[in-house]
Amino acid sequence: MEYRVSAVGVIQTPYATKEEAPIQGNFHPDAIGTVEVFAEFAEGLLDIELFSHLILLYHFDRANEVELVRHPFLDDMPHGIFATRHPCRPNGIGLSIVKLLHREGNVLHVSGIDVLDGTPLLDVKPYLTRFDCFPEASEGWFAGKGKREKPPGRE
Predict the structure, then answer these.
(1) In the chain, how many domains are there?
(2) Does residue 152 fall inside a structural domain?
(3) 42 part of a folded domain
(4) d(CA 128, CA 55)
(5) Contact criterion met (CB below 8 Å) for 114 and 124
(6) pTM score, two decimals?
(7) In this structure, is the dihedral angle defined by the CA atoms of residues 5, 10, 15 and 17, taken in order, positive or negative?
(8) Tens-digit pLDDT string for the chain (155 aa)
(9) Is 25 left (phi over 0), alpha (psi -120 to 50) or beta?
(10) Cα dihedral 18, 59, 140, 78 sign
């Protein structure tokens, strides 16, 4: 089964290279970027500024080869790709939750951004604590893992 997805916008960030981009946006909450929604979709942003946080879905357009088992950035043990948030995925779909600072027409100014500059935006959704936050959720192998730099030589 195949499906077709087209970009609805583009994400601009200060990160030109994979090495510069943080592992997760909450490691760098002060990282500022913009999310430009293409003009033909701008009407869909009605009331978006009423939300403090947004979920961005995007395409990992510069990810390397897909490996179903690999070493993630936050662990030195290999894990299945579906048990990680690693960018080298079968469908290359990324997800980030960002803070909405303000909106200017079809441009959303955000903080806590962790993607490469020029990344194709697939969708924007409001983050809703009632639906998206599960404090009792298990973190699996992530439990207890703290912030660290990307290990050299790993994508």
Answers:
(1) 1
(2) no
(3) yes
(4) 9
(5) no
(6) 0.89
(7) positive
(8) 999 999 999 999 999 998 888 877 777 888 999 999 999 999 999 999 999 999 999 999 999 899 999 988 888 899 999 998 889 899 999 999 999 999 999 999 999 999 999 999 999 999 999 999 998 989 888 787 777 676 777 66
(9) alpha
(10) negative
